[in-house]
Amino acid sequence: MADSIWIKFSLSDQPRLIKKYANRRLYDTAESRYIVLSDILALIRRGESFQVLDAQTDEDITRSVLVQIIIEQESGERPLFTTDMLSDFIRHYDEGTRLVFSEFLERNFKLFTEQQNLFQNQMDKLVGKQAINTLTDIAQGNLDFWQKMQENFFKSVGAHSDKSTESDKKTKK
Q1: pLDDT of 111
Q2: Residue 16: how many other CB atoms lie within 10 Å
Q3: Which one of 22, 54, 81, 154 has the lowest number of neighbouring Cβ atoms within 10 Å?
Q4: pLDDT less than 50: residues of the chain
Q5: Which pLDDT belongs to residue 54?
Q6: For the chain, how big is the Rg over CA atoms in Å?
Q7: Which of 36-40's residues contact partners 24+ apart within 8 Å by CB, and which partners?
Q8: Which candidate, 23, 39, 53, 6, places its Cα nearest to that of 31?
């Protein structure tokens, strides 16, 4: 179901084929190399279409690999889903609500993606191409400016900020 909202950048309509072997290693047939889950995450973020097949049975196991990626992401420092949300997901696995809940999620993800694309297009028109990069550069410039201002302030009052103290130590070595 989620495949319908992926943007395909490949020249062919065929998804990239990844094989999973019994030793749990993933092999990218397009690049002829072994990969890890973070490589698949990168494919997803670039919008590339792919399919994961069990090397022995040719069974499509893409969904289970995607669930593994979600589990890895959720076990990090900033999980997306709260415990209550996950409990609600499990409750909706009931046969009576599964289809309705699945369609609801799919439509809302599609709407969210469309809204994100619309926002990005509007920002591109307002600020120019690479709007997010431009805003990131502006934010970094502001941060650099304030850090320099703070260092100059501390120097003018005879104190040193931690950052300037560390750089002074490196310079003296």
Answers
A1: 92
A2: 17
A3: 22
A4: 1-11, 164-173
A5: 95
A6: 24
A7: 37/65, 37/68, 37/69, 37/72, 40/65, 40/69
A8: 39
